[in-house]
Amino acid sequence: MIVLAGTIGAGKSSLAKALGAHLNTEVFYEAVDNNPVLDLYYQDPKKYAFLLQIYFLNKRFESIKLAYQQDNNVLDRSIFEDELFLTLNYKNGNVTKTELDIYKELLANMLEELEGMPKKRPDLLVYIDVSFETMLARIEQRGRSFEQIDAQEGLKAYYHQVHGEYPSWYDAYDISPKLRIDGDKIDFVNNPEDLEVVLSQIDQELKALDLLK
Ligand SMILES: Nc1ncnc2c1ncn2[C@@H]1O[C@H](COP(=O)(O)OP(=O)(O)OP(=O)(O)O)[C@@H](O)[C@H]1O
Ligand SMILES: Nc1nc(=O)c2ncn([C@H]3C[C@H](O)[C@@H](CO)O3)c2[nH]1
């Protein structure tokens, strides 16, 4: 399983789609469309943060179990980043200490389940690194109404926090081999040559892991 990581709007879903097509494997997208809590969360984070965290964690676990069934399936965001969002929500007073503790216990239980599976962790994590300016531009360009910074006071500051958490999260990540992609410079969405460069970098990593001929 190849996992894509990165801040909101970094390009994970876009690269996941291209990578799945390239490797001829399945892509497990993050549960955004038909998510009954996400827009409520953006309207009222204090009320809905814990429910949203549980919603994403449950969906993530479901996707991981399915994704592990075949080599080189692609997962749009890692279970470890969910914890990054949780911690941030706790810091911001949207999640109580009791909720934080319950979530962490549940997560530990889920990770234990994964430890019991034939494949225990991702084969490769691909991190798309973008600047804060790029993050904002991509969120605006994608245009989900509830994510727009003019829709909600404090949203820009929240995005700044999320963006700020990622570099140290990525540096500390040691669960699997990892690859960083500069999502500011490499336009794998509009430039086929750039996409080719990224895909061949990933291919090389997979070959080194004996997951690609
Ligand atoms: N490298 C890139 N160059 C140009 N545009 C990009 C690039 N990556 C993504 N985009 C555009 O930015 C927007 C967000 O991309 P995408 O939905 O793939 O991000 P994401 O990381 O999956 O976001 P989220 O965390 O919210 O799910 C889309 O409109 C996409 O077309
Ligand atoms: N609060 C919160 N916790 C999560 O675990 C989480 N995972 C994703 N998201 C939000 C970010 C994008 O708007 C949108 C798509 O990534 O969903 C989250 N928000």
TrEMBL record:
SUPFAM superfamilies per the record? Answer: P-loop containing nucleoside triphosphate hydrolases
Under Gene3D superfamilies, the record lists:
P-loop containing nucleotide triphosphate hydrolases
Keyword Transit peptide among UniProt keywords: no
Q: Which residues form the signal peptide?
A: none
Return the InterPro entries for the record.
Answer: DCK/DGK, Deoxyribonucleoside_kinase, DNK_dom, P-loop_NTPase
The residues the record assigns to binding substrate are E30, Y42, Q53, R77, D82, E147
Q: Which residues form the Deoxynucleoside kinase domain?
A: 2-204
Q: Which GO terms describe its molecular function?
A: ATP binding; deoxynucleoside kinase activity
List cellular component terms (GO).
cytoplasm
Q: Give the record's keywords alphabetically.
A: ATP-binding, Kinase, Nucleotide-binding, Transferase
Positions bound to ATP: G6, T7, I8, G9, A10, G11, K12, S13, S14, R138, I139, E140, Q141, R142
Q: Which residues form the active site?
A: D76 (proton acceptor)
Q: Which Pfam families does the UniProt entry name for this protein? A: dNK
Q: Spell out the family assignment given in the record's similarity comment.
A: Belongs to the DCK/DGK family.
Question: Which protein is depicted?
Answer: Deoxynucleoside kinase
> Which organism does this record belong to?
Lactococcus taiwanensis
